[in-house]
């Protein structure tokens, strides 16, 4: 929140007497230096948001809205003017006093208020003085009224907040030296501005029994200040009504009443929203202090959503992963898998090139020897017997290198796992989440076909949940029985139900036809089915029936499962023959661990290039160690078609190299040298194939060409849809190596 | 310097005052979390009795169908009467099911109100008013007498399961302080009574307990024979004549 500066700001009152007090000069915004003691300098912290924010008032020194506060006027006639510390601000009707202050660039201290949760108004930290109001008002809960004169830095407001702070600290243990939140604690920061150096409370402080919320969230309930953010988060965002406020008065506590673990895939977010150290990360407990960590802004690859994350590392080690704000993708939440998979990056790693000897055991060799052997075998087999498979975590650079390498070897049997046989790589609208993740909020009817968003893409599920809560969107689901954290109608389990809907015989049709913005979400698990073309053509006819695809709204969505999928299809990683594995003599697995290798001829030579000793290593003849997503710069495209880049947070382990570099080196040894030897070169190669991948942080929507699809003659089977992900916590080599994820699947999944 | 000394002295005096023996005054009958026990576990089935099902329907009819959760408090009260004065966790789950909310929303309500007992109470739950007027008129002695007579601690049930003693805040009988309330769960939700016994003395309260034990019904209200309801002892001493009509302005004279 950045209340640290408030501490300095508090000293500014004294600087009114002594104008040359240097600290205040440095921090004071020169444009509005006069008369504001509790103010902030957002442009120092958040230059981006400050630049984006509209200039709401031309009068007086222009103020910069805080923390990305945007003023949006749904109806221009509803604009009202209020005065914050004497400066006029124009805001839409219905905004609260606190939001008005944010627009005016005044930071109001708060504990319970959170912009993404409902308003509780129970911490009273945001008290401000309003002219003609007899008492200070809680700004987070008070709607701003026309002409209101809000004063945020008067002695009344300051004294009120100091009083609140004293009460909050009354029962707070003040164990900051042993608290994991220390250094990033709202209470710590704000007590620097509003706290006293001594307390008047001499009784015994209360203590509260700690709760067991599972292997992820550690609780120290004595530190809790009852802001109820976690309760509201669990109810409103995570959709699991487990937490509640029990008891009353000084005996009040947060808990589940009955012994219950928090079985939500978003439970880790309560760690972030807790303003004190009551809910902290269990795996991160006592591991590091936040100020000793190096932050790297990167993206997540454990699912196809590409959540924006920050990897906090110390030295060679990833210490924790926390979310970054991205309104279009993950808002400010991430899933538990994203947050806690990081310990998998330290375990089961491949650090040296290895060759399997005649005795069946692996022996470490030098890169030179390993590449020589691979190249030798590759040159011996027939070109059509060479097969390459990219794994779920592959970045675009290494996939294009793999494809180029195999093409130069004369083979075009290269694909990315999870895309199934004969994937549709021609029409981007056929594999992307076309209405975009944030666009799902506009939908009013959802039809989920063979997808369980809660375990396949929790962030997409959180959007659907948000939409269902906000405008009571109807959700229909076709697939195997599964958990939903919102109201969802199970329409059926297989393609039969799809046919009924397409023919208008199903009761759900009326909802679909009545919808303004219907959204169909098709799971990528269907891509693996043999009859996927006929299923997709039925879905197309449903889309036509419900007018799902229009120029202004494309509601026909495909929800991918893996980080590599969208980019691989953009790059055209489509195998030439359907049964290439069966006839392969040389199989190049680039991090592919979920390929069915039973059909592979026993004399085939398997190269495994990857970062974890996972499933495919058992069959590999040569192991080439590669770096994980936290150690390399790579481009990933998420399920909605937004390309993003990872950045290296930690150095790679052992002798491992970036995926594309290994393939580039191998191509040289094999005598088919690839024409690029740096990242810029490989990216200019990508720009020829899929230029959208280079437009980072930009969503490239698919063009709609529904008519271009060939008619399908395939027969649809009646086999019900199966679930694409068995265990939410373990979907790829990193999460399978993670101890925390193993604990989660042991303790949380068995409960379901 | 002076201020520091004064503070130090003040703290010393305070410490001495704090050391004076004072029983812990917990209002609620239970902790804020559930501990499984043979008679209180989520797995025990619990249902409203056939007779009470109609009352559940009647209670629900008071509230709009989209605000069913408004019925949580009356339903919890009914469940408590049916279950001998206390709410096992399965009863709260049953209420949650009736009003279609998550169980935690019911637990929140049940833990908030001290009149919902989440541990076993006696068939006669005796609640001593502990608020200032009653305390001044001797409610502490009354509680002491009760506890001594029954041989239990506060919020503990006697061995025969008949009595338990709790504390309650002001019940609005300050004029007849001190007072106790007897919640009678011995006859289920049909014969449930909640009676006030006012103007009691440590001796009288023991008599009341003994009468209850014998199944008699002690007269409710003031226990001082010289008083009628909240009137003064020995009859009225003022306002003896018929009240005069209120003075009216003679509008014609104006």
From TrEMBL, chain A:
<protein>
    <recommendedName>
        <fullName>NADH dehydrogenase subunit 11</fullName>
    </recommendedName>
</protein>
<dbReference type="Pfam" id="PF13510">
    <property type="entry name" value="Fer2_4"/>
</dbReference>
<dbReference type="InterPro" id="IPR036010">
    <property type="entry name" value="2Fe-2S_ferredoxin-like_sf"/>
</dbReference>
<dbReference type="InterPro" id="IPR015405">
    <property type="entry name" value="NDUFS1-like_C"/>
</dbReference>
<dbReference type="GO" id="GO:0042773">
    <property type="term" value="P:ATP synthesis coupled electron transport"/>
</dbReference>
<feature type="domain" description="4Fe-4S Mo/W bis-MGD-type">
    <location>
        <begin position="293"/>
        <end position="349"/>
    </location>
</feature>
<dbReference type="GO" id="GO:0046872">
    <property type="term" value="F:metal ion binding"/>
</dbReference>
<dbReference type="GO" id="GO:0016020">
    <property type="term" value="C:membrane"/>
</dbReference>
<dbReference type="GO" id="GO:0051539">
    <property type="term" value="F:4 iron, 4 sulfur cluster binding"/>
</dbReference>
<dbReference type="InterPro" id="IPR000283">
    <property type="entry name" value="NADH_UbQ_OxRdtase_75kDa_su_CS"/>
</dbReference>
<dbReference type="InterPro" id="IPR019574">
    <property type="entry name" value="NADH_UbQ_OxRdtase_Gsu_4Fe4S-bd"/>
</dbReference>
<dbReference type="Pfam" id="PF00384">
    <property type="entry name" value="Molybdopterin"/>
</dbReference>
<feature type="domain" description="4Fe-4S His(Cys)3-ligated-type">
    <location>
        <begin position="156"/>
        <end position="195"/>
    </location>
</feature>
<dbReference type="InterPro" id="IPR054351">
    <property type="entry name" value="NADH_UbQ_OxRdtase_ferredoxin"/>
</dbReference>
<dbReference type="InterPro" id="IPR050123">
    <property type="entry name" value="Prok_molybdopt-oxidoreductase"/>
</dbReference>
<dbReference type="GO" id="GO:0008137">
    <property type="term" value="F:NADH dehydrogenase (ubiquinone) activity"/>
</dbReference>
<keyword id="KW-1278">Translocase</keyword>
<keyword id="KW-0411">Iron-sulfur</keyword>
<keyword id="KW-0479">Metal-binding</keyword>
<keyword id="KW-0408">Iron</keyword>
<dbReference type="Pfam" id="PF10588">
    <property type="entry name" value="NADH-G_4Fe-4S_3"/>
</dbReference>
<dbReference type="Pfam" id="PF22117">
    <property type="entry name" value="Fer4_Nqo3"/>
</dbReference>
Automatic annotation (TrEMBL), chain B:
<dbReference type="GO" id="GO:0046872">
    <property type="term" value="F:metal ion binding"/>
</dbReference>
<feature type="binding site">
    <location>
        <position position="174"/>
    </location>
    <ligand>
        <name>[2Fe-2S] cluster</name>
    </ligand>
</feature>
<keyword id="KW-0411">Iron-sulfur</keyword>
<dbReference type="GO" id="GO:0005739">
    <property type="term" value="C:mitochondrion"/>
</dbReference>
<protein>
    <submittedName>
        <fullName>Uncharacterized protein</fullName>
    </submittedName>
</protein>
<dbReference type="Pfam" id="PF01257">
    <property type="entry name" value="2Fe-2S_thioredx"/>
</dbReference>
<feature type="binding site">
    <location>
        <position position="129"/>
    </location>
    <ligand>
        <name>[2Fe-2S] cluster</name>
    </ligand>
</feature>
<feature type="region of interest" description="Disordered">
    <location>
        <begin position="216"/>
        <end position="254"/>
    </location>
</feature>
<dbReference type="InterPro" id="IPR041921">
    <property type="entry name" value="NuoE_N"/>
</dbReference>
<dbReference type="GO" id="GO:0006120">
    <property type="term" value="P:mitochondrial electron transport, NADH to ubiquinone"/>
</dbReference>
<keyword id="KW-0408">Iron</keyword>
<feature type="binding site">
    <location>
        <position position="170"/>
    </location>
    <ligand>
        <name>[2Fe-2S] cluster</name>
    </ligand>
</feature>
<dbReference type="GO" id="GO:0051537">
    <property type="term" value="F:2 iron, 2 sulfur cluster binding"/>
</dbReference>
<dbReference type="InterPro" id="IPR036249">
    <property type="entry name" value="Thioredoxin-like_sf"/>
</dbReference>
<keyword id="KW-0479">Metal-binding</keyword>
<dbReference type="GO" id="GO:0003954">
    <property type="term" value="F:NADH dehydrogenase activity"/>
</dbReference>
<comment type="similarity">
    <text>Belongs to the complex I 24 kDa subunit family.</text>
</comment>
<dbReference type="InterPro" id="IPR002023">
    <property type="entry name" value="NuoE-like"/>
</dbReference>
<feature type="binding site">
    <location>
        <position position="134"/>
    </location>
    <ligand>
        <name>[2Fe-2S] cluster</name>
    </ligand>
</feature>
<keyword id="KW-0001">2Fe-2S</keyword>
<dbReference type="InterPro" id="IPR042128">
    <property type="entry name" value="NuoE_dom"/>
</dbReference>
